[in-house]
Model the fold of this input.
Amino acid sequence: MKKNLYLIIIATLFSIIIWVSISLSSEYFTNLKVPIKIINIPENYGIASNIPEHITLRIKGRGWKLFGMNFGSDYEYLVSAENKSGKIPIRLSNSAAENTWLNYEIQIMDFAPTSIELMIEKLAIKKVKVISILEIECRDGFGLASDIRLLPDSVSITGAESILAGIDAVSTEFAKFNNLETKLSEYVNLKSIQQVSFNKNSVRLDFDVQKIVEKEFNNLEVKVIDIPTDRDVLLLPNLITASLRGGINLISKTDQSEIKFFITYSDLVADTLGSMAPSYELPAHTQLVYTKPDRIRYIIKKY
Done:
């Protein structure tokens, strides 16, 4: 019984192989999508026009050949600029001879698109800043405790003059970081721009994440600024307590001299309540939680 089963399986497989061989020996049509590559550009010149990244070839050939092309090597359709500059209209069918992988066994029936228009201009080099495109999510109880730094923060780009004229910055590819609780240093790729090359394709991203804590600072002086020479202001009180929130390492190193509270004289003159909440300047990446008192009374003296 087992012997008969083996014979049936072998016969079935043999029949399938024969059927596939006969089928693949017939001619078929298929669409092949391939990237387009411009060659023979004059030295120190570049492409200034938008051209499709891919073209679609409608091809005819025997099944086994088409099967191999769809699952075989990566192909490119080469188009020659013929070492010319300026505006160059090109029919894609005229470049078939440049592509040796399209041999006599393959017949091209159609192109999509059928033609392109090249604009070849002199190359230029320009230095531009890098902008990060990020989404940062910290673990509960943690937060950003430094600036987001990119190293380098600028790159040199090369491309046709008219293209570079419209580029003032390049960006990183979108990056998302979740559940962070410590410093991060990671390379991110730059987002490509058609017909433009970069001297660096990635930059390093650095920032610090720390546990968020609160700390009280006492006896912080409140100053009045821009007082006229014939005026004086008495604040009641002129010393306050403030609570700041920030990264644990950042807050622990914060000195009272870095925390500034002030009231502008012109704001006092415009006030109608007899007391004011002071303005403030805080160390980077810290937040004011509260002040005690939250408002300050004042007396204006005239000489």
Q: What stands out?
A: The chain has three domains: 24-121, 123-210, 213-302.
